[in-house]
Specification:
Subcellular location: Cell inner membrane
CATH superfamily of one domain: Histidine kinase-like ATPase, C-terminal domain
Oligomer: single chain
Radius of gyration: 46 Å
Catalytic activity: ATP + protein L-histidine = ADP + protein N-phospho-L-histidine
Organism: Salinisphaera orenii YIM 95161
EC number: 2.7.13.3
Strand order of the largest sheet: 6-8-9-11-10
GO molecular function, one term: ATP binding
CATH topology of one domain: Heat Shock Protein 90
Shape: rod-shaped
CATH architecture of one domain: 2-Layer Sandwich
Mean pLDDT: 79
CATH class of one domain: Alpha Beta
Structural class: alpha+beta
Largest sheet: 5 strands, mixed
Order of helices and strands: HHEHEEEHHHHEHEEHEEHHEE
Distance between the termini: 26 Å
Length: 445
C-alpha cells in the first residue's frame, strides 16, 4: 500500500492536510489549556462571591431557620449545606487546593484557616483530581458550623471536541479544494513538458513549449526548448551531410562504369563491375534511408494486430511462408508506415536466411511485444549487436542477391527506438533466430 502519493499535486495536498491537522491539534490543546484556566478563574470568582453573599445572609437569619435559607439559596449548579464538620473529603489538602483556598479567602475576606477546598474533575489537573463534583468548598461560620458549598461544572470536552472536529473537516475541505485547483494549475506546465519530452523522444515533431509557471518550471521548459532546437538542428545537419555524400558518390561510380566499358571483358572487370554495383546500391540505400528518416509521420492510434496481419497477407499472396495468427485487437499509438517498413526489413531477412517467418504478438499493460522467428542457422552471440550497425552484413559473399545492403536491421532499430522501444536478437533453442521487439504504450495522452 502506497502511503505517499505519486503525483506532485497529491503530495502538495497531503502536505497541506498534514500541516492543517498539526496546526489544528496544536491550537486545540493550547485553547483547551487556556480555557481551563479561564473557567477556573470564573468559577472561583463566582463561587467566592456566592458563598460570601450566603454567609452574610446567614448572619441575619436565626439558627432555627438557617437550614431552610441554605436550601432556598441553593441552585442546580451551586448547592449549600450546613454541617458540624467539613467532611472527610477535605482531610487531604493538595497544593492546588491550598492555592485555590488562599485565592478564595482573599476574595471572600475571611481567614484561610476557616476555609477548606476539594478539587473535582472540572478544575483539577493531573493526579489531584477528586471523584465527583467539580469543586467543593467548606467555610466555618462564626457560630462554629460549617457551610458546605458544592459547585457543579458541566463537562464541555465533548462539545469542544465535536466543534473542533467540524472546524477541522470544513477547513480541510476548503483547503483541499483550493490546493487542488492551485496545484493543478501550477503543475500543468510540468505535465505538458513530460508529454512533449515523451513525444520528442519518440521522434515526433514537437513545437516549442510556452514558458510559464513558477520560476523553476520555466527554467526547465527553457532548457527543454533549447535542447530540442539543438538536437533538431544537429540531426538535420547530419542528415544533409550523409545525403550529400551518398548523392556525390553517384558521379565517380558512373565514371568508373564508363571506364569499364572500354576494358576487356574478363574476371577482373566483371569483379569490378559487381563492386561498383554494390557501391551504387549502398549509395541508393543510404539516400533512401535518409529520406525516410527525415519524412515526418504523425502518430496515431492503430490496431497493431490488423497492421501485422495485413502485412503478412501481402507476403502470403506472393507465395512466401509467413505465419501470423491474430488473437484480438491490440491498440497502440505509433507511426504505422514506419512500423510496417521495419517489419518488412525483418521479415525479408527471416525469409532470406530461414525461408520461413513466424510472427507472434502479445499485449501487455505497459508494452506490446512482437516476435519474428525464422528457421535459419542463427548467428553468433558476438554478432548480436553488430548486425544492427549500418552496412554490416554477416553473409561473406557480399552479394546483394544473398545479403542486401546491410541497412535493413539498422532501419528497423531506428524505427523501434524512435517509438521509445527496444529490439533484440536471440537464438531459438530448436534452431533459428528470433527478433524480439518491445513497444511501450504512450501514457502521456
Amino acid at each position: 500500500m502506497r502511503v505517499v502519493p505519486a503525483s506532485l499535486s497529491g503530495r502538495i495536498v497531503a502536505l497541506t492536510l498534514l500541516a492543517l491537522v498539526v496546526s489544528q491539534l496544536v491550537s486545540f490543546f493550547i485553547f483547551m489549556h487556556e480555557r481551563d484556566r479561564f473557567l477556573e478563574r470564573v468559577v472561583l470568582s463566582n463561587m467566592g462571591e456566592s458563598v460570601a453573599s450566603a454567609m452574610r445572609t446567614l448572619d441575619f437569619v436565626p439558627p432555627v431557620h438557617r437550614a431552610d435559607v441554605v436550601k432556598a439559596l441553593s441552585t442546580r449548579d451551586l448547592r449549600y449545606r450546613l454541617a458540624d464538620s467539613p467532611g472527610r473529603l477535605f482531610e487531604q489538602h493538595s497544593p492546588e487546593a491550598r492555592g485555590m483556598a488562599r485565592d478564595l479567602a482573599r476574595g471572600m475576606e475571611v481567614d484561610v484557616a476557616r476555609l477548606r477546598v476539594a478539587i473535582g474533575p472540572g478544575l483539577a489537573h493531573g493526579p489531584n483530581r477528586q471523584a465527583g463534583d467539580a469543586l467543593r468548598l467548606a467555610v466555618r461560620l462564626d457560630e462554629g458550623q460549617w457551610l458546605r458549598a458544592r459547585q457543579r461544572l458541566f463537562d464541555p470536552t465533548r462539545r469542544w471536541a465535536q466543534s473542533s472536529l467540524t472546524t477541522l473537516l470544513v477547513s480541510a475541505l476548503l483547503m483541499v479544494m483550493i490546493v487542488v485547483v492551485t496545484s493543478r494549475r501550477m503543475t500543468r506546465p510540468l505535465r505538458e513538458l513530460a508529454r512533449a519530452a515523451e513525444r520528442f523522444g519518440r521522434g515526433e515533431d514537437v513545437d516549442p513549449l510556452p514558458e510559464r509557471g513558477p520560476e523553476e518550471i520555466r527554467r526547465s521548459i527553457t532548457a527543454f526548448n533549447r535542447m530540442r532546437e539543438r538536437l533538431t538542428r544537429f540531426m538535420a545537419e547530419r542528415t544533409r551531410m550523409v545525403a550529400a555524400i551518398a548523392h556525390d558518390l553517384r558521379t565517380p561510380i558512373t565514371a568508373l562504369r564508363l571506364r569499364l566499358e572500354f576494358l576487356p571483358d574478363d574476371d577482373n572487370t566483371r569483379s569490378m563491375a559487381r563492386t561498383l554495383e554494390d557501391m551504387a546500391g549502398m549509395s541508393e540505400a543510404a539516400l533512401t534511408f535518409m529520406r525516410e528518416e527525415t519524412a515526418a509521420e504523425a502518430t496515431r492510434n492503430v490496431d497493431l494486430s490488423a497492421l501485422v496481419d495485413a502485412l503478412c497477407e501481402d507476403y502470403r499472396a506472393s507465395g512466401a511462408a509467413v505465419v501470423f495468427e491474430p488473437e484480438g485487437r491490440v491498440a497502440l499509438v505509433c507511426r504505422p508506415v514506419a512500423i510496417r517498413r521495419a517489419l518488412r526489413n525483418i521479415i525479408d531477412n527471416a525469409l532470406a536466411y530461414g525461408e520461413r517467418a513466424t510472427l507472434t504478438l502479445s499485449d501487455g499493460a505497459e508494452s506490446v511485444v512482437l516476435e519474428i522467428a525464422d528457421t535459419g542457422p542463427g548467428i553468433d552471440d558476438a554478432d548480436m549487436q553488430r548486425v544492427f550497425d549500418p552496412f554490416v552484413r554477416l553473409e561473406a559473399s557480399r552479394s546483394r542477391e544473398t545479403g542486401g545492403t546491410g541497412l535493413g536491421l539498422s532501419i528497423a532499430r531506428s524505427v523501434v527506438q524512435g517509438h521509445g522501444g527496444e529490439i533484440g536478437l536471440v537464438n531459438a533453442e530448436g534452431g533459428g533466430l528470433i527478433v524480439r521487439i518491445r513497444l511501450p504504450r504512450d501514457r502521456t495522452r
